[in-house]
Amino acid sequence: MATVLAHNFKEKATKALGVNPKDAVLSKSYMLVSFTALLVGGFLGLLQGLNRAGIFELPTWFNYYQVLTAHGLLLILVMTAFFTIGYFYAVMSHTLGGLLPKVRNMAWIGFGMKIFGFVMAVIPILLNQASVMFTFYPPMAASPWFYIGLVFIVLGVWMCAFGCFVQVATWRKKNKGQHVPILAYFGTGVFILLFFSSIPVAIEVFMIIPWAFGWVKTINVMLSRTLFWAFGHTLVNIWYLTATSAWYVVVPKIMGGRRWSDTLTRVVIISLVVMNITGGFHHQIVDPGISESVKFMHVFMSLAIGFPSLMTAYALFAVFERTARQNGGKGILGWYKKMPWGDVRFLAPFIAMVAFIPAGAGGIVQSTNQLNQVVHNTMWVVGHFHLTLGMTVAMTFFGISYWLVPYLSGRVLTRGMNKLGLIQTWIWTIGMTTMATAMHYLGLLGSPRRTSFSTYGDHATALGWNPYLALLAIGGTLLIIGVVLQVYAVINMMFFAPKGDTEFPIAEEEENASKTPYWTERWGVWIVVMLVVVGMAYVIPLTEFIVNAPPGSPPFRTW
């Protein structure tokens, strides 16, 4: 009894007095790495865009494909992963009464593993021995040390995931019969997906390492591609689920409102966890060796994710309208004037939500067989990816940083920094919209992805791409301005802003809300359901790839 009372007191004290200093240092370290990766990856993206537009020629010692690989690795794996882990560990510290010492140690071990792995992976890229791009699947082969670096990255992710599971399980033992606080519940879903989706890519990497060393002569290309996309497809939705946590819980509080149904929120999380890993074959629609029926099943599961997304759209815009009307908004659409457009903590994630509408529509295009045939391996796919990661995810993360970094640092968001954030948000929005629109149109015109600038012998079709490539370069230039402003804002709020208390914004449920059923807490059940669905989708095709394996491929170096 005394232990429970002490724990409850500690939890209330944490919520009232702010984050534990040791927990704050942990999350801030993850944030610093995340935004450092954004800065370096952003400049690499600018070089890439200028080169693709034919405006700037890269030197032979650091070519387009090196830049492309490093850009993808830094922004897709480093920036997003470190932000997600730092954010959810801050969430657990705040909502679960502070991190357990062993959990904090696990997160630091994961931090060290990931840093070591990224350094080991980046060195071969700089030496031009790993220009295999983010996807890195065979038959292209990098230096084996690149893949060994990836192993440490995965181990670091697993360590952080286990830390989350230990923290949440300990809280549940001490609070039997209670629901895990909603943000920690989001974090549980994210780390479940991170752990299970990284298992296939870990298997793939362990297949590649002996092949890259030359210990085995060939590798099963279909099997390795499939294992990669079981991870790659899920990774996008891990970012989306992280962003969604702020949309559901934080943004309503910033508006001065309450969050939508707790039951609906938890059902959305469960749905995304259960249906996410299945769907990887929609990235392989044009691949041979996969039956149409299996591809159709994966496409169905990919499109099924649209249902929790539609639930999210309804819930969030209902909250926006209800809160704005409570604040004096009138008319059919006039209520939007009462939304806090001058608060960057609201504006950035709101624009991110709106951007997800065309981003999601583009995903439907790429999940549809006939339409995918038109846009597959064109710049359309790159444009879609920049809308999802560059707008929906990154801008939500930016909005989170304007309250999370001051909270962790014991500082405040000043008017001046808020104004800078608004400027950064609009620069980023204009830049990304310009670039992504140009990429989509270039894809429809047939411009390929993953290639440096070429006029293909001054072919008329290729020359027709030039005006849109120039727009791509303009958008990229605006984006690097946004990157610099965002990193400056984070550094300022972390080290130089005035001292003070910043709220960790968590919206309460609506008054008279219905009681959330406890079956939503049965994560063991939902993980079993997820694994059954994954088995339905992958066991038969993977068995086919192994038993009736196509001729293996030797390693190729195309650069």
UniProtKB/TrEMBL annotation:
InterPro entries, A to Z: Cyt_c_oxase-like_su1_dom, Cyt_c_oxase-like_su1_sf, Cyt_C_Oxase_1
GO BP: aerobic respiration
TM helices/strands, residue ranges: 30-50, 70-91, 103-126, 146-170, 182-215, 227-251, 263-285, 297-320, 346-365, 385-405, 426-448, 468-491, 523-547
Listed GO MF terms: cytochrome-c oxidase activity; heme binding
Residue ranges occupied by any Cytochrome oxidase subunit I profile domain in the UniProt entry: 30-497
Key words, A-Z: Electron transport, Membrane, Respiratory chain, Transmembrane, Transmembrane helix, Transport
Cellular component GO terms held in the UniProt record: membrane
Name the record gives this protein: Cytochrome C
Native organism: Neobacillus piezotolerans
Lineage: Bacteria, Bacillati, Bacillota, Bacilli, Bacillales
